[in-house]
Amino acid sequence: KAGVTQTPRYLIKTRGQQVTLSCSPISGHRSVSWYQQTPGQGLQFLFEYFSETQRNKGNFPGRFSGRQFSNSRSEMNVSTLELGDSALYLCASSFSGRATDTQYFGPGTRLTVL
Amino acid sequence: DAKTTQPNSMESNEEEPVHLPCNHSTISGTDYIHWYRQLPSQGPEYVIHGLTSNVNNRMASLAIAEDRKSSTLILHRATLRDAAVYYCILRRYNNNDMRFGAGTRLTVKP
Which parts of chain A register pLDDT below 50? Predict the structure, then answer.
């Protein structure tokens, strides 16, 4: 079956703009998690959605938000972009999001903020 | 949150076994030990996970210390395609996030 897909794959924005990233999970998966990866901070957990509800949130400012639709597709939004938001944004899906589930990662969206 | 400690980097020769260590001295009884790896220019991929007993799958083996304060990921015969950053992660049973550490960068030499 098809893997996790993320769109767009690359994005260039300027400071102060906002951006929306999209993630389509594996069919049947109801949990979607988002991560930010930077050379300095590594992989950091942003938030996780399950059945359209945010279940867990990492330590990021309120400029980072997300949502999940009834078909489990998820979007992540970053408002008022800063240079430090330049990163690879990864989403991962799993069946239920529990600790025994495997998370399947997408290829990521590379965001560059100028 | 319980944390993990891994060496920054390790080297191996092709077709030799590799033992990647992970310390997690503050692990709790409901924490599962997961290993993921990230190949260059790709998202992380699942390798193996366990709770208390040693685990084997087609990719690797996971050896868990009796006190659960450390674990070792074993690649039985390293190939060039195994060159990646390997992450050891603790996941609490009723929690649904994954907290990645810095990981171990494995280099495989031909």
Answer: none
Of A42, A43, A98, the CB nearest to B96: A98
Q: What count of other Cβ atoms lies within 10 Å of the Cβ of residue A112?
A: 13
Which of the residues B32, B51, B53, B98 would you substitute to probe the A interface, choosing the one with the greatest number of A C-beta atoms within 10 Å?
B98
How far away is chain B from the Cα of A17, in angstroms, using its nearest Cα?
26
Instruction: Please report the pLDDT score of residue B29 as a whole number.
Output: 87
Among A8, A81, A77, A66, smallest CA distance to A33 is for A66
**Percentage of the residues of chain B whose pLDDT score is greater than 90:** 78
**Average pLDDT over all residues of chain B:** 92
Environment class of A13 (CB within 10 Å of its CB; exposed 0-12, middle 13-18, buried 19+): middle
- In whole angstroms, what is the distance from residue B31 CA to residue B92 CA? 4
